[in-house]
Q: What sequence folds into this?
């Protein structure tokens, strides 16, 4: 189904290409849902709009970067060993684009379900999916608890996104039974990366809620969540997914995983800073959102540890600003503590160190200049983004 | 990973064989989860225990029946067209068993999430998964709302079961990177059945909650939910999945879908009767469970329509017994109305007609005697089960 779509020539072109594949996917999937019942079609449109309306497409971009890097360095057995003998050629750019795009459907499930778990009302400046279903329930004057209905509908639509992610990565779209070239089966090593990634992100999300409930404020706990929920899922596994599809040599895959780990942690540390200090106009999230939500980030863990070393009263004031609604003054005061105790500087320093480590690994990976330069530029943008 | 496991010789042996595959899968998956963090390992054990502790394994049995029927009648292009050239043989019994078993992991997700949606406290006589996580939260004296934590944890563990279903159907287990024969890629036509089935069941579940919220009491609405949530998902698609894996001829696949539709509706109608009249000791559900839960079943739709025809007061009394806690006397009174207005007779008659239709299609499908006899016996048991 993706054979006729334009493939990206450079990493900057990946988000637009991914959105084309997503649009083509939903052009198939929504009518199939509507054939079950118009109500189901309308719900599938909610998922479609959620997926198409935004996001930085970071994961597909890393996956496509892994593909480009792996392709330039490919050696060893051909991935066609696992492919349909009817299409004896190796995976091509359109296969890589399709696999990369599938990550956005996993992410749709993760976000829809995370927003239920975090009780979030908005995302990207819009109503979250469960709140949207709750609003529809009220608007239609239905029976029962609108809030519970919204959660129930969003659980099911998140599940649908996760099922569709697996369909797309394997080359299926719902109802796609007769048109287009036969889907090329995913090479087994790619399937294993896909499998590991999904278990890791769900395990990381679970660990996140357990740490929060268990009150584990340690930096170690925050790092463990980052390692699985973000670093592996957002950067390392996507890079590996693309490189594995390209049958990259094991040394390159190992280098890309190391780059992915460093950049993934840097990505999350930047996210931590944006979650407290970010501009709501740019991030689409309320001011001080992570404080209000009570997220156990590394920034807060370091801030609490440093504040406790200095003055238990300061630590108590910071802790008091975690996990409850805050006035602008209270957000400002918590921010000042994080700056004063040096937590912000420490996070910035860690980001710099991680970025340097990633760039050094990239430098030594023996990649040809164009893709190395692209990855270097992308790494800088990931570490220093403001949205 | 399943190559060393015993394959079932007859349909009656399928549940035990499925449980062996599930146990082998969790022997791999739980340590992988525990490697993320012991807390994640403990949560994976909750999923494992939920999956292994019970269930009739109806869906895998139908899938394996489809495989056996398809294999005896196979013709046309070999499914090995899509298979790994390193394993040039066609799918074998162990592949069929693995594909059939994957359905139990889809079902685990469906049940875990359904129990959140239905706010159910027990299933199969045990605490539901979200209630179990809620209990653990309380026992550990964690912070926050135990009920919300239970829901959050169960959402994520249901997601994990769904992701694992896709891993298993494609021949992967988490962390399975080096041992066993290389997984045989799923033939593309099987992948399409798998894809359709997941969209249908999630669409059917969504339609179910919408009908309930929208107060659609019609028999049509109840049938539409049955068609997708039960008939397709529980019987028709599993039969088709197995038969497609066996490269059965299209006429047989079409016959099996017809059988599946009839038996699937009969299965759900029997479920409707058990949900109101079932013995709690045998069903593991409280007496009159569907009444209390307010399920919009065909039994209730027909009961309400017939009661309204006869006497609006009777219809009002029946409607009053739907969707709230009931005393034993109130359950008894609602049961009496359903019997008196003839709704129970009508459902029994419909089950008989559907069973006859399924058996006639089976008779005409040209299957050899052993598998035809097995399927016939299984059809009778499905239509007349008491648990």
A:
């Amino acid at each position: 189904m993706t054979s006729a779509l334009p493939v990206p020539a450079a990493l900057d072109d990946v988000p637009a290409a991914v959105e084309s594949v997503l649009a083509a996917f939903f052009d198939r999937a929504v009518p199939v849902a509507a054939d079950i019942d118009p109500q189901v079609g309308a719900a599938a449109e909610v998922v479609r709009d959620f997926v198409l309306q935004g996001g930085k497409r970071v994961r597909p971009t890393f996956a496509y970067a892994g593909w480009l890097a792996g392709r330039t360095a490919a050696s060893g057995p051909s991935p066609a060993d696992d492919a349909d003998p009817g299409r004896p050629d190796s995976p091509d750019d359109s296969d890589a684009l399709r696999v990369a795009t599938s990550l956005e459907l996993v992410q749709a499930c993760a976000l829809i379900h995370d927003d239920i778990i975090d009780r979030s009302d908005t995302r990207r400046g819009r109503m979250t999916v469960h709140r949207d279903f709750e609003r529809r329930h009220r608007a239609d004057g239905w029976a029962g608890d609108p809030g519970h209905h919204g959660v129930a509908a969003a659980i099911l639509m998140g599940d649908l996104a996760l099922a569709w992610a697996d369909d797309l990565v394997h080359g299926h779209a719902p109802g796609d039974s007769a048109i287009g070239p036969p889907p090329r089966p995913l090479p087994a090593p790619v399937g294993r990366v896909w499998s590991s990634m999904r278990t890791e992100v769900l395990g990381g999300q679970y660990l996140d809620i357990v740490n929060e409930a268990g009150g584990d404020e340690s930096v170690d706990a925050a790092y463990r969540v980052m390692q699985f929920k973000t670093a592996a899922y957002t950067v390392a596994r996507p890079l590996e997914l693309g490189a594995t599809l390209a049958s990259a040599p094991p040394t390159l895959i190992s280098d890309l995983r190391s780059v992915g780990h460093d950049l993934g942690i840097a990505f999350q540390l930047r996210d931590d800073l944006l979650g407290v200090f970010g501009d709501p106009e740019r991030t689409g999230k309320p001011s001080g959102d992570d404080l209000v939500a009570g997220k156990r980030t590394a920034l807060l863990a370091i801030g609490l540890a440093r504040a406790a070393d200095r003055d238990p009263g300061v630590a108590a004031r910071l802790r008091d600003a975690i996990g409850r609604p805050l006035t602008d003054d209270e957000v400002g005061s918590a921010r000042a503590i994080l700056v004063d105790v040096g937590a912000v500087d420490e996070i910035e320093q860690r980001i710099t160190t991680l970025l340097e480590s990633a760039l050094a690994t990239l430098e030594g990976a023996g990649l040809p200049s164009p893709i190395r330069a692209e990855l270097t530029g992308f790494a800088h943008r990931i570490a220093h983004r403001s949205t």
Notes: Strands of chain B lie at 122-123, 126-127.
